[in-house]
Structures
1.
Amino acid sequence: MDKFLITGGRPLHGRIVVSGAKNAALPALAASLLTDQRVILRNIPRVRDLSTMRSLLEDLGVDSSVTHETHGNRVEIEARQLLNPVAPYELVKQMRASVLVLGPLVARFGKARVSLPGGCAIGVRPINLHLKGLEKLGASIKFDHGYVDVKADGLKGTDFYFDTISVTGTENLMMAATLAEGVTVLENAAREPEVQDLANLLNKMGADIEGAGTPRIRIRGRSKLQGAEHSIIPDRIEAGTFLAAGAITAGELVVDRCIPEHLTSVLADLEMCGVKVVGGPGGPQTLTVKAGSTLQALDVTTQEYPGFPTDMQAQFMTLMTQAEGSSVITETIFENRFMHALELARMGADITVNGRRAVVRGPTLLSGAKIQASDLRASASLVLAGLAAEGDTIIDRVYHIDRGYERIEEKLTQVGARIVRISESD
Ligand code: EPU
């Protein structure tokens, strides 16, 4: 298992480039199953979850090819036929987003057999709403030896209300509804930019979707979809992580190729903590974070978009260890997403966790230590802690970070960080 060795205390300076959004690229790959024509996706991040999704498509009998481009990968997929409608346990347990093939498979081929994902490091994360929605669209659902078998003889448009807002749930049902007969209305739908990006791709493929990005999405079904070419939006969470890295090291970092509107809540909270982030230089897709006055503590509650993202909670907690005062961080989306707190405490942070609430008292001097990553965003928060800490930090199990951050150690090295990957073979 690879590790990172980080020698902290160096301010970051320079330009860092944001990759394509993992959580937009994953449903985009799944959406290619909705047509027998060629779908070309660009700005696909070179991260492990995307390789896992390609392996899953391969298991289903669909080939894809990859070309390196200056910004991300170009992936071409032509799902002419389906050999095996199964998302096996081995892949689903590696990556829950595998369930995104469910909607497209049922809509186009009338069947899917997907391993139930089970619990996950950050919470229970059931898929009951994905299944309820598919059932409402006319599919039959059967549980069998840890798998769910979903069958349909043509889906029919329906109205579906999400009693909990779900990002991949919205994506799964939106994809399924593009090939259903008649109109589907999804109420209390997720509004994340990744949902909007998927709708943009589907509309290019000939779907008729209105309202993506609002809580009410209306989809008029089509009998067939066609091929399309689409470039994935930048990763707002990677961009937010880099802004936090600039702030915590008191550097001056230009975060390039991001969409500032997707970061509204993060930018507002950074500003309230005293972090200076300005637009530019050189275009609307660039932000610069500058070392400013002392960081001030701020209370933050995670919410669905456009609220403060749960995927930035861990990174924000690390930042708060360096702020004056007490910060109360409330996690409302996942019930077990504070595992980084204990590792941060091992580095000297003063954090008390009580259920879904964590109180961070700062500022505290962080000192380098041997720590362990537990999930993707937790790993990012530990990298930030390592950058800010005195001395050397060794982070174990960085395979978690490789799932969703493209070459993070190389990107950070280019802006002055001392971070090296230690491979098992070294
Ligand atoms: N939920 C249900 N039933 C369902 C679906 C969800 O109760 O059928 C609950 C979940 O247990 C959770 C809440 O609804 O408490 C929200 O979960 P959601 O379904 O929105 O999460 P997700 O779609 O599984 C995506 C991202 C996550 C991100 C969350 C929240 C992808 C591939 N994953 O997950 O990303 O944290 O939305 O924004 O889009 C990450 O990138 O590190 C990551 C975990």
2.
Amino acid sequence: MVDEAFAPVTSELYMPDEEIVRNAYVQDYEALYAEAQQNLEEFWAKQAEKLHWFQKWDRVLDRSQAPFFKWFVGAKTNIVYNALDRHVKTWRKNKVALIFEGEPGDQRSYSYWRLWKETNKFANVLRSMGVKKGDRVTIYMGRTPELIIAMLACAKIGAIHSVIYGGFSEQAIADRIEDAQSRLLITSDGAWLRGNIVRLKDIADEAVKRSPVIETVIVVKRTGHEIHMEQGRDYWYHDLMSLPIASPNCESEVMDAEDPLFILYTSGTTGKPKGVLHTHGGYQVYVSSTLQWVFDIKDEDRYWCAADPGWITGHSYIVYGPLILGATSLLYEGAPAYPYPNRWWRLIEEYGITILYTAPTAIRGLMRFGDAWPNRHNLSSLRLLGSVGEPINPEAWRWYYRVIGKERCPIMDTWWQTETGGFMISPVPSVALKPGSATRPLPGIDVDVVDDQGVPCPPGVDGNLVVKQPWPGMLRTVYGDPDRYVQQYWSQYADKGWYLTGDSARKDEDGYIWVIGRNDDVIKVSGYRLGTAEIESGLVSHEAVAEAAVIGVPDQVRGNVIYAYCILRSGYQPSDRLREELKEHIRHEVGPIAVPAKIEFTDTLPKTRSGKIMRRVLRARALGMPEGDLSTLEE
Ligand code: PRX
């Protein structure tokens, strides 16, 4: 999805402030990078030493079954021990771990002690309901502390959590439950969004109807509206938490470093979502190290990652990374511009936020409302800014830098993926920045931009972004589908053993990487990763649609929006009503984020002779651009 609107500009260079460099955890990027290059295993072992292990590893990295790499082989640990248990034995027991503000304005805060205790209680509830090590638990909730507690409670007892983002709907949830074969679902009655209630429990009920593998549903009361509770299947969270089974003491299960921690579904080239699998050992080392390097978290900081815990950004940098580092984080439930476009700026002022990590789409969305909204607030507590999810266009970068950061706060443009577990290409606060570039790979990460044969592209030439060495935070497999893991990520450069990211990128003369976008059938809408195939299969599941193709088209705020092309079955006529019906259908099947901005009815779709839809042609037509090489077009 190459988007010329975001074409890199290489001429600007922003040097870091002297004081920022002086205080930065990584003062000398080059030196740390060189150290890792010299001895990769020693380097990662050194990072791992900072954490607690019930038993140390025999080997740092086992490549013998590549690409099924193993990290910290033989070690015993539990990520929750590092995120909570060890802190309550120190002064951090009394430190604020989490500050929560709901969209209606309600506030709560959790010390490490309280978060630990609530986690223990819920872990005991789960255990008493028969959840065991290795069981999959699906979580579908709004952005509240109970979501975090549910994740931690699962991990604590060795269950594997599968969090589904609250913006997904019936079929998407059902598919993910089915794939994980989870018997327990944790949800909430609803969530607040833009002053309205998103009726999560109703959606969850429908999903469970479609995937009856679920035996038990635990429901957190958030919005308090009337919902259906199925006798013998559904239980209120607060009821369970008040029973004697919810004891506040719970030992963390001793896990093998390579035991699974979570599955997180993400979109790929087929309609079936991929369950990206991460583990306890390597992942904890990777997320805590990278968070320390990039966001330089100090005990005095109040850090706010405004993502959703239901995405990898939330897993790694709202939940696990910050807690392992003993940080204080803010969690905000609702929409950025509710009730007014100053909500976020007010939150920063109210809580004295020092580090803000968000996505270009949010920045562009808020930028639209003008400078007056942020300027009305004192944002001087901020010292670092961050961006993730898609390339940040230089215009948004500059606004973020000037209006929010007041030209004092460097922007950490972090490139990474669900699969990578943590930041891969990113500045640290002490390096020079170029707006629109994620700069260079982090220590221990070896990336390159290469052509289809694996030959490195010279500066300025687009190619495939690859990772040439394994790293501790890498996915271990696609849940239940190891072949797909090999095929998707390791087959194109199998002879070289490189990981294929699926992104296209270019390097510049200084070795800075400019990520351009996805090479495959993945569309980034507001930073959310959607597979064309999943939306297309959603469309054809409607009785009127015979065939469908969707593409991403650049949009000023959302990065991309979806255009859909549908061939109707005989007997159905194109109409605006049908268009609206199809949008509603997608809202239900996949989720509101997947609703096409435009639906066109057509008699034919451009296809190759082998029947593959040529989305490139549709895209060129939609943008009024030349259609390029049509030699493979069937008709
Ligand atoms: O295309 C890249 C884009 O987001 C993709 C990964 O999406 P997902 O797995 O949902 O994870 C998003 C949060 C880590 C990548 O393949 N992407 C992510 N960050 C950036 C980016 N593109 C450009 N610049 C970034 N900073």
